[in-house]
Structure formats: C-alpha cells, structure tokens
Amino acid sequence: MRHARTYPGKVSRRPAGVALGTVMAAILAMTVGASAGWAESAPPDDADTAITAEAQNAAEAAEAVTETATTESTDEAGEEAADQAQESVTPLPTEESDESEESGGAEESTTPADSEESESTGEDAEQSHEAEESHEAVAAESEQSTEVEGGEGAEEADESEESTDEASAEDGTADEGAEQDVAVASAEESVQLTERDVEVIQDVGGGAATECADIGFDFGVKLDTGAAGSYTYYGSGPWEPDGIDIALSVTIADSHTFSFMADPAVGAILVKAGQGSQQLAGGTAGFREIGGQQAISHLTFCYNEPEEELTVTQTLETTFDREHFWSIDKWADPESLTLYPFAEAGPTSGTIDWTVDVGYEGHEDSGHVVSGTISIENTGDTTAAFDGTHVLETSEGNILPDLDCVPPVPILDPGGTFTCTYSHPVDSAVSGQSVLEIVTSENSYAADPAPITWGDPDSEVNATIDVTDVSDLNGLVNESFTAPNGGTITYDWDFAWSEFGLDACGAYSYDNAATITQTEQSADESVTVEVVCLETTPVVPTLTPGICTDGVLVHPTLALAETDGIEYAVDSEGPYAGGQTVGIMASLTEGYVWGEVGSEWTIVDDLTVTTDVTLEEVPCIPTLPEPPSVDDGDCEDGAGVPPSLTLGETAGITYSVDPSEPYEPGQTVTVTATLAEGYSWGEPAAMTLAPAAATAGGRSVPARVPTEHAVSDTEAQPVGWPEEWTYVSPTEATFEVTFEDPECPQTQPPQVAASPQLPSTGTPSLDLAALTLATLAGGLLLASVARRRRTTIG
C-alpha cells in the first residue's frame, strides 16, 4: 500500500525502509554489468568520456555493493547479491586493434575519478585498474554494435573472450541470445529501471524545497553527499529536511552513477555536479548516470504532491412481483320457482338461468426492491480514505439502505476499487433517484444520479386462471380467463310441475358451485323449486328494546309477524320489562303445511311450532337536584357586599340560573336543573338531611344522605323529591332564591354638650369624657352585630 505522506508542518511517521538500501544494493549488483546498455548514450563529443564512465561505474558499483552486502551479513539475499556482483563485473577482453584508441579514453576518464576523490572518500588503485579494464571492454562493444542489449555486459568470461568480429558476423548463437534476453528482462523487471532523462540546468542552490520548487515540484529531500555508499532516508546518510513521510533508498556506485528505490515515485532527480546541476528522470526505482567530468556532489529527489482522484459510479435496478386478483360470483334468475298443479293457483312451469361471473379485479404489486451497485475507483496517485453518503430519494421519503462493501474499510490505494451493493425493500413502486456522494479530506465526488424506474414484474401470480363450474343439473363446465379480461359462463334449465307429480310435493334444492382453481375462490348458488302443497314458514316477531329518553323509561315492545297460513300468539301481554322472556306460538291455518322451519323454532306437532324471545332495555339512572349555596352579602365599614350564589354539581344534571350575576339584596333568581339523556328523576339511594355546611359570609341548604332506594313516579313528583325544588317535567325542575338585605346601619358622630364648670374634686374631667365616648361606641357595635343575621334556606 502506498504511504500517506506528511510534509513539513504536519505530523509525520517514519517509513519502514531501512532494509530497502540493502535490497537495492543486491539488485544493483546483479545488473551493474548491464549499466552501459540501460544508460543513455552521451553526446557525440563526450562519447569517450561516457563510455569510460560506464566502465568505471560498473567496477565501482560492484565494490560498493560488495561492501554493503558484507555490512548486512545477516541478510542472505545481500550476500548472494554481492557474490553475483563480483561475477557480473568481470572485465571484457578487447581486440588489440582497439587498445590504442581505448587507452586514450581511459586516460580521459581519470578526470572524473580525481574529482570524485576530492569530494568523497576516494577509490584505491585496484578500483581504477578494474575500471580501465571494464572501460576497454565497453568501448570495444560500443564500436561493434549500437544495438547491444544491456544484459550482454553480464555474460560469462569465457563467452566474452570470443572474437567481437565473430559475434558481429554470426550475431550470437540462438541459445546465447535467449539467455541474454531472459537476463535483461529479469533485471529490468526487478528494479523497474527507466532510462535516465538528463537535462543540464543552472544550479539553483538552496535547500531541497527551493531546488524542487524552481523546477516545478512541490517538495523534495536532499542527500547531501556524493560519496559512494548506500543511504536510506531516516536511516543512514546526511538528509534534509526531516519529517517527510516517504520511503527512499539510494546507492551511489561511483562519482557518476547511482541507483534508487522510492515509494512514492520520485518526480525528478537533481544531481549537483560541479557548478551546475543535472535533472534526471524519476520513478519508483532505477539506475541513473550523469554526464560530464564533474563528480556527484549531492542528490535532490523531487516530488509532487500526490493528486487525489476518485471515479464514482453507480447502477440501479428494480424488481417486484405482481399478483392478479379475480372475483367470482354466481347467481340464478330466478333463485326459486314455485310450481302449482293448475294455472289458477300459479305457474305450472318455469326456467332458471344460471350465470357465473368472473371479474378481473386488477393486480397488486409487492416485493418492491431497489438494488444497486456502487463503485469507487482510485484513479489518482495517492491513497485515499473516504466517507460518503448514499440516499435513495423517493416519493415515500429518503431511505438509507444498508451497504455491503468490499473491502470493508473505505481506504483505497491507487488503482484500487471499492464496491458496495445494496438491496432495499420499499412499500410500493416509488419514484425518485439514488444520490451518491463520496467525500475525502480534500474533495468530494458525486456520481450521476441513478433514476428509480420500474419495468415489468419479475414474476406474476394468477395471470391466467381456470374456472370449473359444477352443477347438479348441468354437469361440469371448464373455462380459462387471462388478465385483464374476465367473462361469464351461462346456462339455463327448465322445470315443470308435471315432472314431479302429486306424490312429490315439497321443496327441491339444486346446488351449484363455481371455483377458480388457482385461488380456490368459489361461488355457490342454490335454487329451490317448490312443488306447492301450500306450505308456509313461521317468522320470529320483531323486538324493540326499551330505552330511557326524556327522563322516562320507554318499555320494550314486541310485534308479531303477519304470515299467510299462520296465526301467532304470546304467552303474556305487555307492557314488558327488560330481560323478560316471552313465548311465541305459531299455528297453521287450514290448507297449509309447514315448509322449512328455522332452527330457532321448536316443532310441537304437525300444526304448531314455538319459540322464545327475550326483551332488552336500558334503564334510566335516577338522580335528584341539589340546592345551590347562597351568600346574602355583608356589611364592611358600613358598606354592603353584594350577594352571591354557587350552583351544585350533580351527575346527570345541568344547572343554570336566571338572571345571572351580579345580584342585589332582595332580588329573586331562578335556578333550573335539566336532566341529561339516560337519567330520570328519582332518588338513586335513600337520602336523609344532613347539617348545612357553613359557607363564608353566607348560607347553604341542607345536604342529603342515603336512607332507602326509591322508584321514580312518572305520574307525579318522584319519591324523595326535595321540597324546595319545583317539579316542572320529567327532565326539568326549578329552585327560587331571594337574597336578603343585610341592612347596614347609619353611623352618627357623638355629640358632647358643654357642662358647667364644676369645682375640682381631684378627678380630671377628661377621664369622664373618655369613658362616655367608649360606652357610646360599644353600644353602636352591639347594634350592628344584632342587625346581621344568617339564614338557612330549606
């Protein structure tokens, strides 16, 4: 999975890339012999320098890889890679005819080596010797063929000793060519090498961020050394800046070549060499070489911010089932025939027409399901964590169906696909659309709305039905009907009295049934053909239950039926009470016989049947009115307080007063009590008078307590009727109240007559005057109290 990167100013995590350098070194060792073929050719003017550099690169890379593999001795892969590297850099022999020319090139190649020695750890004499030998081999091969594959440099030593002219003439044996192709393909596939793209640019200087920004990249990291060796970001080597969340391993093979492995991919590589810089192609891995004579000073790996892009699509489909509904009815016209032995009494023959009616009642769709697939593909170059909303916007409201997603965690690496499916039942063929929006920390992505459309049902029930009609008279009839068309089945039958005769008087029933096979719906019809012997059937009387209305109980009633050939009688006459059972007797008159007698009747003999009926009633609820509470008013500070009246509260009674307040002393008002439906005047339970309840500043009538149960008397006042109330009707009673005057007294100020001057007796005259005033005030107070009175009405 691609790493999520953190840039300066953000929290970072260190990549697990320490071992990456060792692995890369091993891979490089396997492929270093082919470096001349993978690297781009130098410009024509620098051909000798480039070829010399290629040879020197091979030798130096082999030694660097060997050292790296030795350091990582615990890694078996590194040890094997080092061994392979030693074998792969065996110098290639050259023809003597080319030695003089190549020697000149070798001498020129010492300049980059000297430069590298001044900026790095340096190379020993043995390395230089190996570089010269390798350079001569590469120079010879480059003159012989411009199409030599990179893998040819890694051939066995004995194969390299063959004549170059012979190799050019025969173009190699078939076996050797196949072996070379496999070696080259394997090496290229393992390190994902791309040819370097060299562009010499002016050295921009500064840190990695500045250098990368000047060539159009977002950020970068710098390996601030050109010394041979393996370096891992966050592992070994002088790197800047810190805190970039990448995985990067670099192996500098010599002063002009290096290899790398990176995750994410590098956008470009800036190589500082001398006063200028060279821009090389990036990638996820590769072998790179710089041109010119200046040695590598440092490497800057530039990156672009990864671009996030999600492609969001959705599909939607609907399914439902359809059930067709049918009705079936059957009737006969007429439903019965009465046949008489002679025309004077009635018809002697008749025809009955049967009809089976099959109706299409429409269909009902059910099992509506909206299903869909959501696909989210990461078409960008960075790992994306996302969330989103999926809503079915329907005419029944918004629906959030459950999603079944793979993978279960909404995180996608580049190229990955996240798929969700759903299947949600709905109540009907809703209209609407599926709306999908995916949101990341940077962007939002909306899929095209998927409309909810309904086509034909996936399955149909009872689209075609079979109707079977079975008749006592007509036998078996079958017919099919297909939605949406119903239809009818008809047939008729003739009857005549003569077919029965005098010995067959009575009623004959002919049954007929039609059935829909698939639904098991059926319709029955029976016709009756009566061969008349003047039969008759008793009828139960009509009962009317008793009810309480307008304060009076209306008793239940019974009305006997009127039937030809039958006389009815009751065992008791009305009026009837609720719950009373009355016996009914039905007797045949002359010339009639019993026809079909219902189960509610009991056959006593050939002429008599009886039945019992029970009458019902809803009794009245007895109640009596309660008197109001009266306050005649009061005197306060010589001023009168107006009288007041409080109405009682009694179940089944509504109280009203006329006129309404405010009231005046001496005024007479009328309180009316009106019964509610279902109530009647009467004492619900025995009552006695209770002491009047005192009211603040007024008087009240006595309350009642139970004494015995009383029955209403509708002819006069009910038993227990309160005397202070006037019985007006079965639903109304009145009560009159006259407010009394409290007669507030008029207060006169006391008058004190002047008295002659008396001789002083030793008692001050002021004390006598005060005593006189106190006596007068007390008398007035007693008079006022005496004038106040409270009266109990009733």
Report, as a whole number of angstroms, the end-to-end distance: 103 Å
Low-confidence stretches: 1-198, 686-715, 760-766, 782-794
Q: Residue share in helices?
A: 10-25%
Shape: flat
Rg: 61 Å
How much β-strand is present in the residues? 35-45%
Mean pLDDT rating = 72
**Sheet of most strands:** 8 strands, antiparallel
**Total number of beta strands:** 49
List the domain count as a whole number: 4
Number of helices: 12
Structure class: alpha+beta
Please characterize this protein's 3D structure.
It is a single chain. Helices cover 19% and strands 37% of the residues. Mean pLDDT is 72; it is low at 1-198, 686-715, 760-766 and 782-794. The chain has four domains: 20-303, no CATH class; 307-528, no CATH class; 535-614, no CATH class; 621-738, no CATH class. With 794 residues, the chain is α+β, with helices and mostly antiparallel strands. The strands form 14 sheets. Strands 1, 2, 3, 4, 5, 6, 7 and 8 form an eight-stranded antiparallel β-sheet that branches. Strands 9, 11, 15, 17, 21 and 24 form a six-stranded mixed β-sheet that branches. A five-stranded mixed β-sheet has the order 10-26-25-22-23, with no helix packed on it. It is flat. It is built from twelve helices and 49 strands. Helix 1 crosses helix 3 and helix 3 crosses helix 5.
